[in-house]
Amino acid sequence: MRRVRPVCGTGSDLGGVPSRLSARTVPPVRGERCETDDRAGGVAPGGGRAGARGGSGATVDAERDGRTRAPGGRVRAPGARHGTATGGRVTDGASAGGPAEERPTENGPTENGAAAGGGWAGWREAAERALYGGASASDGPGTDTGGFFLREAPAAHFRTAVHASPLFATAVAELLLRLDEALGRPPVLDLVDVGAGRGELLAGVLAALPPRVADRVRPCAVERAARPAGLPDRVAWSAAPPAGITGLLFANEWLDNVPLDVVESDGTGQLRHVLVRADGRERRGGPVGGEDAAWLRRWWPSCGSPGERAEIGLTRDAAWAGAVATVRRGLAVAVDYSHARTTRPPLGSLTGYRDGRQVAPVPDGGCDLTAHVAMDACAAAGAAVPGAGAPLLLTQRTALRRLGTDGRRPPLELARTDPAGYLRALARAGEAAELTDPAGFGGFEWLVQPVGVPSPLAAGPTGETDPA
Ligand SMILES: C[S@@+](CC[C@H](N)C(=O)[O-])C[C@H]1O[C@@H](n2cnc3c(N)ncnc32)[C@H](O)[C@@H]1O
C-alpha cells in the first residue's frame, strides 16, 4: 500500500499530515477483498496489509470481477467511483468473483449480530465500540483508553476541507452572514458545529466574521471527544446539539462516522447481516428483516446479486433528523462524500484510515471507520421533521462558488505591480481550486436543510441549478 501524500501544499498547516483526498486521487493498491482465514472459520480483511500479516495473498481486486466499490478516501467525486474501498467481503477466498459460501456461525445466525456472542457483532455495534467506546482522556489521568475518536484528533490521521484551507471557514462565515440577514439579525446567532473534531472550523469561522456579527454569535462544538485545551472560553462544548437553535448547524464529515450495519447477499440472493470481530474477521449472520429490509428496499434496491454488499443508512437518517429537529429557525447543513440511490457502490464503501493511510476497516479502536453517506435518504429524513422546508442537495463545488470561493488565477499584471500580493492571491486561488476540484473536495455533497427561512444557498439569478 502506498503512503498517502498531500495532494498539494496549498496552505495546509498540518505539517505534512496526509490527506484522505489523496487516498482517492492516488488509488490505494491494496486488495479489495477479504482473505481466507480458515483457523477462525471467518475471514480477515486483506489487501495491502496482508503481507504484513503473512497473509496467503488470496485477496482479489474488486475490479477483477467487474464490480466496484465506492472510491476510498474522505473525498469522492462523481464519475470517479472506481473501486478503492477496503471493506472486507465475506468469502471463502477460493471463489473469488463468485458467490461466497456462508460459514456456520458459532452461535447460530442472529437478526443483527448483536447477540451473536463469541466476539462477533454487527458492524454498527462494532464500530460504535471501536470509535467511541470506553473512557476518554477527559475522564481523568490514565483513562485514555477510549475509542479512536475519543483518543485521536481527526487532523492527525486525515485531512478534511476544514484542514485543507481557511477558505472553507471563510465560505461558512459567508453562509452565516447571509443567514443572519435572512433571520433579521437576531440578538443571538447560533453557530453549532456537529462532529467538531478539535473545534478548528468554529475558530476559523469566528475569525472570518466581521466583529459586528461575531459578537452576536453563540458558538457551540458538538463532539464525542473531550474539549481540547486552548479553545476560547466562549465556545461551548457539548455531547449533543443545543435545543432551539436560531442560526446555523453545520456538520462537515460527521455523518460518514455515524456507525451503520453492513449486509451482504448470500449465494441465494438473500441479504444477511455481516458480523465482524475486533480483529476484522467477518462472517454472515442472520437474514435482514424489519425496518432494515424496508430501508434497503427503498434506498439501496440494487443490492441483491450474490456477494454484493450494502450499508444500512438508518442510523445516519436518524442522526440527521435529530440534528435538524434542534433548529428552530435557520439552516442545517451536512457535508460529506456520498452516493445516491442510483449510484450505490455494489460492494459498499466501508473503509478505514490511520495515519493518513487507507487501511482495512478493523474495528479494534486503532483506525477511523467510515462509509459514504446515502445523502438522499438523509435528506428525506430531515425534510420529514416538522417545520423543515425543502432540502437542497448540491456539490461542494457549486456551494462554495455560490459563497464566493474563487479558484481563478489572479491577473498576471498583478505580478508586475504587486509581486507579494500576486503570490498571496495565487496561493488563495490554489486553495480554492483544491476545495472546488470536482475530483476531490469539490465532489463532496452539501445537504442544505432550511427551517423557517429561505435557503441562502438557492440558485442565483443566473438560473444555475444543482438539483438533488
Ligand atoms: C471525520 S471527523 C470530522 C471533524 C471535523 N468536522 C472536520 O471536518 O475536520 C468526525 C468527527 O465527528 C465526531 N462525531 C461522530 N459522531 C458524533 C456524534 N454523534 N456527536 C458528536 N460528534 C460526533 C467524531 O468524534 C469526530 O471527531
TrEMBL record:
Highest taxon above the source species: Bacteria
Location of region: Disordered: 1-118
Keyword Methyltransferase: yes
Biased composition (Basic and acidic residues): 30-40
Ranges of biased composition (kind: Gly residues): 43-57
Family matches, as PANTHER family: PROTEIN ARGININE METHYLTRANSFERASE NDUFAF7, MITOCHONDRIAL
Protein name, per record: SAM-dependent methyltransferase
Native source species: Streptomyces spiramenti
Source lineage: Bacteria, Bacillati, Actinomycetota, Actinomycetes, Kitasatosporales
